[in-house]
Design goal:
Blueprint: H1 3-14, H2 18-22, E1 28-32, E2 35-38, E3 53-56, E4 61-64, E5 70-72, H3 73-79, H4 85-96, H5 110-133, H6 145-153, H7 158-163, E6 167-169, H8 175-182, H9 187-192, E7 196-198, E8 206-208, E9 213-219, E10 225-232, E11 240-242, H10 258-268, E12 271-275, H11 277-285, E13 291-294, H12 301-308, E14 313-317, H13 322-337, E15 341-344, H14 353-359, H15 362-370, E16 373-374, H16 375-386, H17 397-406, H18 408-413, H19 417-431, H20 435-450, E17 451-454, E18 457-460, H21 467-480, H22 485-491, H23 500-510, H24 518-524, H25 528-535, H26 545-570, H27 581-603
Parallel strand pairs: 12-13, 12-14, 14-15
Antiparallel strand pairs: 1-2, 2-3, 3-4, 4-5, 6-9, 7-8, 9-10, 10-11, 15-16, 17-18
């Protein structure tokens, strides 16, 4: 196997979850971190009373201590599901949203070549910055004393410098460029990674991007340097400068320090999420190791998906300023959507954890950690702060009402109706309000925002429906590519098409022989005007046709789920029956099931 193929395979395996596949059919018991015990699929047909298979989900491997079966996710799909290697790779790509379309191409794609070269460039750059920081003169003194003094003043010990591969970009215009050119790296490639800039006055003159900065290599969970952050030490703005985004560096999904923290996260079954390089390092240097940083204030859905690979328990510790508090509230909404068990670390003495550990030690942090807030207590505390830090007892009726209404948007993203009900009870007690009134007000909000009520008959707010467009595209694609008809037939039932004429055209196309031509397909439609219209779109439906069909199947099935949701919301109660809590909850549960079904569909599960 060549290095690119091995890299593609390792990348795929790092993005799949063996436990997610197994729990669809077998009993799974979480033992902590990435360790699970599962009913063994290979003896007693997966129905053993006491699960005996040990699974390490972070490594993607299993072993049964009863029958001796062992392997990884590919072994499981081959031996239990009967898939060959290519089928297994394709299935995992669909199931976990990984592009495997060029996986078995004998010709290395340009994208793959760029990926490998980018890794090489960043590795050379990281080594260069690391060695530069520690350069000494003949007397044993550090050459770049300003850089080493900066780290000393920030109380960053050598073991942290070593573990995080911290380095220094010297005050030279072409220091890194010269090193990379000596390693036969093109200027185009250097510039693509944001390690060089082009002169405004001379488009052929390039200079180093990072100059006189402490350098923080950004390393992923596979120990690959994917980018850099540079901290100015001479007052030059910006204070922090990141590599520009590239094929291997996506800021919105990157967790700084994950390469070091991942084993501690799995051990603790919890992640502490902070803001940036120095907060992460500040925690690690006092022995708090299950800490990673976002590269900036905003937490994204991609960050949360990365976190979910390791744990569902998050302690959020963003900066204690207006931007940090705002970002925390946004992060709460996203994390609740993904079923995260969330707590908030509130730092009142300092702006952030980096400053905190300049004043206090780990023992003081342990007290701070033990007083962390649930997300809903954080929202209450924040709301009270906005009205002058009043106590609950001194809060007016109008102010309590505003606090209650803040929670509505958070309730909307909670997946568990039971959790929602328990939080309503807790908040009612905390705010000293009637829980039944709270519940009724929320249901009115829910009812108003999801349905328009007219004579107690709910009607959905209409949204633009693209399903008919997808149906038309399907007919165009199949008519111009008749070889796809048999493939479509396996996934698309006639009932999935709602438009009368597209359903009729689809039925006609299904009657064609497998060797039918485009002309045969156009003729069988029985409509010259439609046939001419389809023929005029031939260029649009002549490339990547298999991928286009797969995408249309996904969109049609997804649209069908949305259609069913609208039917549920539009279903009329009897005129004698009022819209009560039970009926709303019943609909909410049905909608939740459909949402989960849609989520599985987009993850590649068979639906």
């Amino acid at each position: 196997m060549n290095s690119i193929f091995i890299e593609k395979l390792n990348r795929l395996l790092s993005m799949v979850s063996l436990v997610d596949l197994l729990r669809e059919k077998y009993k799974v018991i979480h033992r902590g971190g990435s360790s699970y015990t599962v009913q063994c699929p290979f003896h007693k047909d997966g129905m053993e009373t006491n699960p005996s298979m040990s699974v390490d989900d972070s490594k993607g491997i299993y072993r049964c201590f009863t029958c001796g079966s062992k392997g990884n996710v590919l072994t499981y799909l081959k031996e239990k599901e009967g898939m060959d290697f290519k089928d297994a790779v394709s299935y995992l790509g669909r199931r976990f949203g990984v592009d495997t379309s060029d996986f078995f191409s004998k010709k290395n794609t340009q994208k793959e070549q760029i990926y490998l070269e980018s890794r090489k460039i960043n590795r050379i750059a990281s080594n260069y910055y690391g060695k530069t920081l520690l350069l000494k003169d003949k007397n044993g003194n550090y050459i770049y004393k300003d850089a080493t003094d900066y780290l000393k003043n920030r109380k960053i010990p050598f073991d942290i410098v070593r573990d995080f591969k911290i380095g220094y970009a010297p005050p030279m215009w072409n220091g890194l460029i010269s090193v990379l050119e000596n390693n036969k790296v093109s200027m185009k490639s250097i510039n693509a990674l944001g390690l060089s800039n082009v002169s405004r006055n001379n488009p052929n003159h390039f200079y180093d991007t990072f100059i006189n900065r402490i350098m923080f290599p950004i390393i992923n969970d596979r120990e690959e340097v994917i980018g850099f952050g540079g901290r100015s030490i001479d007052g030059r703005e910006p204070k922090y400068l990141n590599s520009k985004e590239s094929l291997i560096f996506k800021k919105k999904s990157t967790l700084y320090g994950i390469n070091i923290a991942k084993k501690y996260i799995l051990k603790e079954d919890e992640i502490i999420l902070v803001e940036g390089y120095m907060d992460t390092i500040a925690c690690h240097k006092v022995g708090i190791k299950n800490v990673v940083g976002s590269l900036g204030t905003a937490i994204t859905e991609d960050h949360i998906k990365e976190i979910k690979k390791y744990t569902s328990n998050v302690v959020l510790a963003l900066d204690n300023d207006e931007a940090g508090i705002k970002a925390t509230k946004m992060a709460i909404l996203l994390m609740l959507k993904y079923g995260i068990n969330l707590h908030i670390l509130t730092i009142s003495e300092t702006k952030d954890l980096d400053e905190y550990f300049t004043l206090y030690n780990k023992d003081r942090f342990d007290i701070l950690y033990s007083n962390k807030l649930t997300w809903y207590d954080f929202i209450i505390k924040s709301a009270l702060g906005n009205i002058g830090n009043k106590s609950i007892e001194d809060t007016s009726i109008e102010e309590k009402l505003k606090i209650v209404q803040i929670f509505y948007k958070y309730f909307d993203v909670l997946n568990s109706e039971t959790e929602k009900e328990m939080i309503i009870n807790y908040l009612s007690s905390k705010l000293m309000i009637d829980k039944d009134a709270f519940r009724k007000d929320y249901l009115k909000y829910f009812n108003t925002n999801i349905v328009k009520v007219n004579n107690n008959i709910p009607k959905v707010i209409k949204k633009k429906d693209n399903k008919l467009y997808y149906e038309n595209s399907l007919i165009y694609l199949l008519t111009l590519n008749p070889s796809l008809i048999r493939v479509a037939e396996k996934s698309i039932g006639v009932d999935l098409l709602k438009k009368d004429n597209t359903r009729e055209f689809y039925i006609r196309l299904l009657t064609l022989d497998k060797d039918a031509s485009v002309d045969d397909a156009l003729n069988i439609l029985g409509d010259d005007a439609i046939a001419n219209k389809i023929r005029s779109k031939e260029k649009l439906y002549s490339e990547n046709v298999n991928e286009k069909l797969e995408e249309l199947i996904l969109k049609l099935k997804s649209a069908e789920i949305d259609y069913t949701k609208r039917e549920i919301l539009n279903s009329n109660n009897s005129k004698e029956e009022s819209i009560n809590f039970e009926s709303i909850c019943t609909k909410a549960r049905e909608i939740h099931k459909l949402n989960k079904l849609k989520e599985q569909l987009h993850q590649g599960s068979e639906v």
